[in-house]
Hints:
By secondary structure, this protein is of the alpha/beta class.
Amino acid sequence: MAGSSVQKARFGWINSRVVRKVEIRPEYNIIVTEGTKTEPYYFEGFQEKINQKYRGRIELKIYGEGRNTLSLLKKAVEYVRDSGNVIKHVWIVYDKDDFPDDKFNETAFICAGLSNENITYHAIWSNECVELWFLLHFEYFNKKVSRAHYFPILSGYLKKLTGKEYTKNRKDMFEVLYPRMDAAILNAKKLKKTHKSALPSERAPGTEVYKLVEYLKKYI
């Protein structure tokens, strides 16, 4: 009995029914985007929420609309080289738009080649455009159409939800879409399974944005 009492005294803290989770801080990340408004406004929502809890862990770099996909990647590599932080994840966010297929595909291949045990480069492309990712918050969409077709469909949903149509410079997309995020991730994964080809240029419609969102979502 005495021994039992000693054990309880020594290890009584283990008996607590409340198991506290070990908080894992996010590694240093940069999100590099070609767009000057649409993608930055959206990802700023994640950045603000995460950095409130984990100061400076998410950086957002904008290198100009229309920049070639490969030069966008080059700017990201230069930034990592000059950064004072040990960056573990680099997320290159870009659209297919009118970029040639070979350049669009090559960016993804180079990202894979640059990645190692110390740093991972992620090719976060959308074919045709990031508006596909937005639309997947409302429905599973698997029609190969030009990017212009996404706008009226997306506007229809947003007008019912917010009273405003979709425009590329809307600053509230993160807040509006956040409650439907899990549905969008599931739809994007389902869409990915329909494509037999591994080439990004042949996966239309398709988007890898869900990978970045799924990663960031853990820390909100």
